Amino acid sequence: MLGLNRQLVQLEKQGKEIKVGLIGCGQMGRGMISQIENMKGMRVAATADLQTDIIQNAYMTAGVDPQHIVTTNEIEAAEKALHEGNVVATTDVSMVIALPGIDVIVDATGIPNLGAEIAWKTIMNKKHIVMLNVEADITVGPLLHQMAEASSVVYTGSAGDEPGCIMELHDFADALGFDIVALGKGKNNPLNYEANPDSAAAEAKEKGSSPKMLASFQDGTKTMVEMNAVANATGFLPDKAGMHGPSGTVKELPDIFRLQEDGGILQNKKIVDYVNGVAPGVFAIISSEKEEVNHEMQYLKMGPGPNYILFRPYHLTSLETPLSVARAYLNQSATIAPWHGIQAETVATAKKDLQPGDRLDGIGGFTVYGTLYSQEESVAANAFPIGLVDPNVVVKRAVKKGDILTYDDIEQEKESTIWKLRSLQAKSF
C-alpha cells in the first residue's frame, strides 16, 4: 500500500480531493485550515463556527481568495458552492455534517457535550469522524466507536494529539514484539489542583489561549483525560489513582519505570503515566527477554537495559490531524480509538469545598478537576465522570476539597446528549 503522501498525490492527479467539514474555528481549527491548504488531495471545504468572520479570516490567512468563500446556512447554496470549487462558512453545524459533498468531519470544539452530538450525527450521516475532543471520547467513545463500526465508517482520535502520538509508539513496539512496560507523556506545567480561569488569565492572555483551557492543563485534568484515552485504546491502566507523575529526564525514565522490587516506582507493568520534565514529548518504555535483542539494543546505543525508551520530542496537534483524515478516508483505519472499551475513568474531584446548590462549571473551571482511576476503582466508588460535568449538574450534598464526586453527590437538571449516549453506553457495555 502506498504511503499517505503518495495516495494523496494520486488522488489529486485523478482530479479528486477529500472534502473535510470542520466544526470549530478556534486556534486548532484555524491552524488545520492553513495546513491542509498546503496539502495535495484534501481541502477544508466547509467550516462551522459561532462567528463566520473568524472562518472567513482563517480561509483568507490560508491563502483562499475571498471571492471563493461562500457564507450561507442553506444546504442547497452550500452544496452548489462546493460543486463550483468554493469553500463554505456557516454557523450551522448540522448543515456541515449533512452536506452530501463532505467526506470527513473533524470536531475541534473541545466541548464534551457538543463533541458527542457532532460525532453521533456524523456517524448517522455515514461519514468518518475525527475527534480533536478527547473529553468526549473518554466519556462516550466506546459507544461511538461501536456505532461507527456498525455503520462502516471510521471513528478516530487525531494524529498530533498526544494520545495519537503515544498510540503510534505503542503500535510500533507492539508490532515488533517488544514488551511494553509503560506509556506516557510529559506535562508542560507544574501541577496546581486549584488552577482556575482567574489564576490562569494573565498567562492565557500572553499565550493567546483560553483561560479555562489553560487551567485544565494546569490542574492536571487534560493530562488525566489524555492518558484515559490511551488506557481505553490499549488496555493499559494507571498504576495508582491519579498516576505517579514523577520528575525526570528522558535518560532517567527507563530506570524510573521499573517495578518497585527492581528499584523503580511501579507496582505493575503495562501502565499509563505522565512525567514532569520531558514536555512536550511522549514515550513508551519497552523491554525484551531475548538476549540477542538486548545485545542489539545496547549496540544501537539505546541504553544498558533491561528497559529502553522510545521518545518522540514533539506533537504538532491539529497540524497533524489531516493525517488522521487521510487514514480514515483512504485506508478506513483509525489513528487511535477505544478498542478495549472502558478501561479507565477520569473522575470529578472537588477543587474546593462544595455545598448543596453549587453548580459544576465544567472542565478548567472553579469547581472540579479530573483524577484518573481504573474502571474497576471508579465503578466501586460510584464515581462521577469529568466528561459529564456541566452547569446543568448541581451538587446536592457537601463534598470536601480533594474528595471525588459520586453520582450520589449530584443531580442533573436537564439531560444533555452526552448523558443520553452515556446511558446507552452503560447498557451496551
UniProtKB/TrEMBL annotation:
Gene3D superfamilies: NAD(P)-binding Rossmann-like Domain. It comes from the Bacteria. InterPro entries: Asp/hSer_DH_NAD-bd (IPR005106), DRL_cat (IPR048423), NAD(P)-bd_dom_sf (IPR036291), SAF (IPR013974). Residues 345-411 form the SAF domain. SUPFAM superfamilies: NAD(P)-binding Rossmann-fold domains. GO terms for molecular function: NADP binding; oxidoreductase activity. PANTHER family: SAF DOMAIN PROTEIN, STRU PROTEIN. This is NAD(P)-dependent oxidoreductase.
